[in-house]
Design a protein that fits this description.
The complex is a heterodimer of chains A (657) and B (513).
Chain A: H1 4-25, H2 31-57, E1 64-65, E2 71-75, E3 78-81, E4 84-85, H3 88-111, H4 118-137, H5 141-159, H6 166-197, H7 202-210, H8 217-234, H9 243-246, H10 252-261, H11 266-273, H12 275-279, H13 282-303, H14 309-329, H15 333-360, H16 373-376, H17 378-392, H18 398-411, H19 414-443, H20 473-488, H21 493-505, H22 514-539, H23 552-559, H24 564-612, H25 622-643, H26 648-656
Chain B: H1 5-22, H2 29-51, E1 60-68, E2 73-79, H3 81-101, H4 109-128, H5 132-152, H6 159-191, H7 196-205, H8 210-227, H9 237-243, H10 246-252, H11 255-266, H12 270-296, H13 301-321, H14 325-356, H15 367-370, H16 372-385, H17 392-407, H18 410-435, H19 451-469, H20 472-494, H21 496-508
Antiparallel strand pairs in B: 1-2
Helix pairs in contact in B: 1-2, 1-4, 2-3, 2-4, 3-4, 3-10, 3-14, 3-20, 4-5, 5-6, 6-8, 6-9, 8-11, 8-21, 9-10, 9-13, 10-14, 11-13, 12-13, 12-18, 13-14, 13-17, 13-18, 14-16, 14-17, 14-19, 14-20, 16-18, 16-19, 17-18, 17-19
The chains are: A mainly alpha (657), B mainly alpha (513).
Chain lengths: 657, 513
């Protein structure tokens, strides 16, 4: 087992085995066995990762398996293999993916207990782990792309898990197609890399880049922007974020695992992984930072008015991913990964706690029909509180450290950095506001629950109690563990975390003035407190909730999410359909199909004339034409054998001339 | 064994066809004969990759018997890396086609299965003939069963539409075959040979009159381009897909034309093929987008499949005319892919069509409830089609696109890659409308795949996966042959290309010799 060749491939292959077992046999297996299969393989993967982490902790070298990997696509000089590599960055990602992933598998056993297609759900979930671990373990861009598209597939299957619902099918399709737009960018970047470097291996590309003047700046920028397009698709950034809110159609644990903790962070991972390229292109970095900041702010504004608890969290995820992009854009890759990790803890927790609430309310997702749940669901309430404090950035919760690191890194980047920092700070205010709004609306005040709701989850509990109930312990255990991580996950501190990642992402920029940093931290906490205060004054008591109605105009804009979906449909989807249906379908088909038929007939006529010179036939119809052709062939053969004259070829050549 | 295996592969289906005709049409007798016969043929085709020496250039398993001395026509067969897997593919698709017809063909089974087996002989013949007149015979022969079977066993209730489709296929494919014949005769008149290698040498020597040779190559190109079909020549495709029996429709497009393009256009007329390349590349890229966009708005799933096929076959054309090794490699792999994926999709849509008697996408919905196996396998085949990594479609598309990107132009490759987005959109739309949602009115009648069908499509799906994960098993045998093509192309690039250039320009200006 010490041979890295052996254990690295096992990390993705074990969940794959789980997928195959449950996917092929699951429908015939008892539920307990399905759960056991679904849990044991991710746990084994996690054990392997934990073992690797222990190796690192005790100072052993990290295995890199790149060169002797089995070949995948070979053509001419191009050689792409199934190379895997484990470094510090991958290790952090793997810990998050398999660790949080296992907890969410555990939670799902309780959450999905009554659902039809239980086995299918876990098969997909294991499949996701296979692709996600492949994505982060890949030693070259193309294998990374395998994971990249594969997690998209798993996401598609899980968003559309409730196959009865049209909205779920729509959302899954939208997610896949929008991601494909991003994947298109990724693919072009891969071709550019292949054309310019002749290799897709991370290590070889880095070596190429280390030599001075390897490539023109323009090419590098182009590669980076294409990669960025891919990243905006997977990580739901402007302009391709539109699929993530709809993706909430999937079961809530899926939202926690795929659409919050792991898959959507793949874009951040990709940029960090390709940082050697991005570092060479200030333009691309600036675009990354601006996209990140803009997305963070934009999504936070929309999150302020959403009433569906999962949608608030979805926009919050988009916003937090924006922070990570912002960090990448200012070159603070390790801060981005730090936030990625803490975000995985608290956002997974937020979703799982929201799922617990939804479960407890028999499928209700509308926060206007919640309230007062702190008594009925104490564990959910307290764990959720930890997560809310963490995401809002209160000291000493995990989110404080990572968000603080990002804002500090931005602040040190000159005038543009100050602007980005300001946007980040305002976003922090909004974040704190909408999270406490959610907190108050869900847990505080009086219950506003109606009889029985039917949303995602309610099919089985139709006539159960109208009042809430706390979830079973199999769901609460992951909540408690994640709550502990949300509280203490940041204590490792940016210093040590950055030093750990330094071999991969390079040394972070010199820390600024300690006093300034302290000031910034205090300011950030004050801002978060302000957000809490505003939320408190608006939502703590039910009667004051009307205060927001006075801002009806802006509110309407936000509730409609700036009409971006409508804009895309009007500007992209409809024109394509219109062109396809009318320009191509009517005019194109008419011209091409009819036109080519005429062309063929014309050519046939010409050839007829030609043939007629030596074969007197009166050719009136196509059918007769064929007969003639066959006859020609026959006569030709017969004549050749019968005559047996050597002069035949000459005769023929005379005839054709 | 090695020196009769190709004849065996040709004769076994022919003998099977004769046997079907001789034995009485009672119960499933013709179907069983066809199945056993095609399985035996498939086993024979597997002999080829098992004994193929992949490093050796040139043709293997050669058979060369002089058939007629005047004109000099030889029974000359042989296989190289280019045709090897296509022969195996035809061998595999024959039993698949028989199983796909098992339930849907109930009347005139004698006629159906004998023609079906005849068709198989013809297709194998096209791939293994090294004498151009022999090749032409098989080529013509391969068109006839498709037309007759489409007319006789049209899927729709109205007989007129089946006849119309058969006639259209007939017109589109027979007419360009006539200039092909003329062109062949012209070549014979000037070289005194129909032998592939001899003709290749004669054309490469540059001794043939230029402008006429240009027209000869155009005649070749046209006949093949219609059979692929290339954009603009696809008028027969949608009708044939809608009307022909599933077993016939799944083999009607793609491989014959694409193989012939490589073997008898690019390899035979390297200089002139380069002249045609810009046009073909333009048509290919346009075809990718055109087919994909039209597939997006179809209401009828056979039409959708036909436009999707046009789009994915255009990838092959793009790869061939990019003249890069990886492009050719991808094109050939994609030809095989398309055959496999198309067969799987046709079989499954055929089951849907037969059980619901409708091909309107809107009349379906929620079929996954009643047909879970069908739904799962359909999703897998669709994913292969839209190029999901680790399935075969991705490898082919990736090779074609990367070859195009480096060898032809970034713009062309980028435009072609847009097809990747669109393909996801139309296939997922199809999946959603047919399989997801609540059960619709038609769905009570929908049946799941039978165990034979599940096994058949399951095997196809496994091959898709194997080709996606270990494509080198296939490309390593394809590559040496294609290396020959691209190298010949490079050498021809030096001297005679200018002569050919002059020839084509003088031809296009209509200047006499």
């Amino acid at each position: 087992m010490n041979d890295p060749m052996l254990f690295l491939p096992l990390i993705p292959l074990l969940p794959l085995l789980g997928f195959l077992l449950n996917g092929v046999l699951g429908s015939r297996l008892p539920k307990a066995l399905v759960s056991a299969i679904a849990l044991i393989f991710p746990l084994a993967s996690f054990a392997l990762v934990a073992r690797a982490a222990w190796m690192v902790h005790t100072g052993l070298a990290l295995p890199v398996v790149e060169h002797d990997a089995p070949a995948w696509i070979v053509s001419g000089a191009m050689h792409i293999g199934f190379g895997l590599a484990l470094d510090q960055l991958t290790l952090v990602m793997l810990l998050v993916i398999t660790g949080v992933g296992f907890l969410i598998h555990l939670y799902s056993v309780g959450y999905m207990e009554h659902e039809a297609g239980y086995w299918r759900y876990f098969a997909y979930l294991n499949l996701f782990l296979f692709f996600m671990t492949t994505l982060v373990l890949a030693a070259n861009f193309l294998l990374m792309f395998v994971g990249w598209e594969g997690v998209g597939l798993a996401s598609y299957l899980l968003i559309g898990f409730y196959i009865d619902r049209k909205s779920a099918g729509d959302a899954g399709k939208k997610a896949f197609v929008v991601n494909r737009v991003g994947d298109f960018g990724f693919l072009i970047a891969i071709f550019l890399l292949l054309a310019n470097f002749g290799t897709l291996n991370f290590s070889e590309i880095a070596a190429h880049l280390a030599t001075p003047a390897a490539l023109s700046g323009g090419t590098i920028t182009l590669i980076c922007l294409c990669l960025l397009l891919g990243a905006t698709g997977k990580s739901a950034q402007i302009p391709l974020y539109i699929w993530l809110p709809d993706a909430m159609e999937g079961p809530t644990p899926v939202s926690a695992l795929i659409h919050a903790a792991t898959m959507v962070t793949a874009g951040v991972y990709m940029i960090a992984r390709a940082h050697a390229l991005f570092d060479l292109s200030p333009t691309a970095l600036m675009v990354v930072a601006v996209i990140g900041a803009a997305t963070a702010f934009f999504a936070a504004t929309v999150a302020m008015v959403q009433t569906d608890i999962k949608r608030v969290l979805a926009y919050s995820t988009i916003s937090q991913l924006g922070y990570m992009f912002l960090a990448c854009g200012v070159g603070a890759y390790s801060a981005a990964v730090f936030h990625l990790m803490t975000h995985a803890f608290f956002k997974a927790l937020l979703f799982l706690a929201a799922g617990s609430v939804i479960h407890g309310l028999s499928g209700e997702q509308d926060m206007r029909r919640m309230g007062g749940l702190r008594k009925e669901m104490p564990v959910t309430f307290w764990t959720m509180t930890a997560a809310v404090l963490a995401i809002s950035g209160f000291f000493p919760f995990a989110g404080f450290f990572s968000k603080d690191a990002i804002l500090a890194a931005a602040f040190e980047q000159g005038a543009a950095g100050k602007a980005l920092w300001t946007v980040g700070l305002i976003t922090a205010l909004l974040t704190s506001f909408y999270m406490f709004r959610l907190w108050y609306m869900t847990f505080m005040g009086q219950s506003r629950a109606r009889g029985h709701a039917q949303h995602e989850h309610g099919h089985e509990h139709d006539h159960k109690q109208a009042h809430a109930h706390e979830s079973p312990w199999i769901m609460l255990t992951p909540l408690v563990i994640l709550a502990a991580l949300s509280v203490g996950g940041g204590w490792v501190g940016m210093e040590r975390f950055g030093a750990f990642l330094a071999p991969v992402t390079g040394k972070a920029a010199n820390a600024g003035d300690a006093h300034v940093e302290l000031m910034l931290s205090v300011l950030a906490v004050l801002v978060a407190a302000t957000g809490w205060f505003v939320a408190h004054s608006l939502y703590a008591r039910s009667e004051s909730r009307g205060a927001t109605e006075s801002l009806a105009g802006p509110r309407r804009v936000l509730e409609n999410k700036y009409w971006i979906d409508e804009l895309y449909i009007a500007c992209v989807v409809r024109p394509i359909e219109w062109i396809a249906r009318y320009v191509l379908g009517w005019i194109g088909e008419l011209v091409l199909v009819r036109g080519s038929a005429w062309l063929l007939a014309g050519i046939a006529g010409l050839c007829g004339e030609w043939l007629r010179r030596w074969q007197s036939g009166n050719l009136r119809s196509y059918a007769a034409w064929l007969a003639a052709a066959a006859a020609v062939l026959l006569i030709f053969v017969l004549a050749g054998t019968l005559l047996g004259v050597g002069g035949f070829a000459q005769t023929l050549s005379w005839a054709v001339r | 064994m090695d020196n009769v295996i190709l004849s065996l592969i040709l004769l076994v289906p022919l003998a099977g066809a004769a046997l079907v005709l001789l034995l009485p049409e009672r119960g499933k007798i013709p179907a069983w004969i066809a199945l056993l016969d095609s399985l035996f043929t498939f086993a024979c085709t597997l002999h080829l990759p098992a004994h193929f020496v992949s490093g050796r250039g040139g043709f293997q398993f050669e058979e060369n018997v002089l058939w007629l001395s005047h004109p000099r026509i030889s029974y000359h067969l042989g296989v190289d890396g280019l045709s090897l897997w296509l022969v195996v593919l035809v061998g595999l698709l024959a039993p698949v086609g028989v199983l796909a017809s098992w339930k849907s063909i109930q009347k005139n089974t004698k006629a159906f299965y004998s023609l079906f087996l005849l068709q198989q002989t013809a297709m194998v013949g096209v791939f293994v003939s090294l004498d151009l007149m022999l090749y032409y015979g098989f080529w013509e022969l391969s068109l006839i069963p498709i037309a007759i079977l489409t007319a006789m066993f049209g899927r729709n209730l109205s007989e007129a539409s089946a006849t119309k489709a058969a006639l259209r296929f007939f017109l589109y494919t027979f007419i360009p075959s006539a200039p092909l014949l003329v062109a062949l005769l012209w070549l014979y008149a000037h070289t005194g040979s129909f032998d592939y290698a001899a003709l290749q040498a004669a054309i490469a020597s540059g001794s043939l009159p230029g402008w006429q040779l240009g027209w000869v190559s155009v005649a070749f190109l046209l006949a093949f381009a219609v059979k692929v079909p290339v954009l603009g020549m696809h008028g027969w495709l949608a009708d044939t897909f809608s009307e022909a029996p599933v077993a016939i429709a799944m083999i009607a497009a793609g491989k014959l034309g694409l193989y012939s393009l490589i073997r008898f256009h690019v390899e035979l007329f390297p200089a002139l093929a380069r002249e045609a390349a810009p046009w073909m590349i333009g048509l290919a890229v346009a075809g990718i987008l055109y087919g994909a966009m039209l597939a997006l708005v179809q209401r009828d799933f056979w039409k959708l499949l036909s436009y999707a096929t046009l789009s994915s076959l255009s990838f092959c054309t793009l790869g061939i005319y990019g003249f890069t090794l990886s492009g050719m490699n991808g094109a050939l792999l994609q030809t095989v892919n398309e055959g496999l994926i198309g067969a799987a999709l046709f079989l499954m849509l055929g089951v849907l069509y037969d059980s619901a008697r409708s091909c309107q996408i809107a009349s379906f919905g929620g079929a996954a409830h009643r047909a879970p196996r069908l739904a799962a396998l359909f999703v897998i085949a669709s994913l292969a089609m839209i190029g999901l990594p680790l399935l075969n479609g991705f490898v082919g598309e990736f090779l074609v696109l990367s070859g195009t990107f480096t060898g032809v132009g970034k713009g062309w490759a980028t435009a072609a890659a847009l097809g990747v987005i669109l393909s996801a959109a139309y296939m997922l739309r199809l999946i959603q409308k047919i399989f997801l949602g609540e059960a619709e009115t038609n769905s009570p009648r929908i049946r799941d795949l039978s165990w034979q069908e599940t096994c058949t499509v399951g095997v196809l799906a496994m091959i898709m996966l194997a080709m996606g994960v270990m494509p080198t098993l296939w490309t390593s045998t394809m590559e040496p042959a294609l290396q020959g093509v691209t190298q010949r192309f490079l050498t021809v690039d030096q001297a005679p290309v200018s002569a050919a250039y002059g020839a084509v320009t003088s031809a296009s200006t209509g200047e006499p010799r």
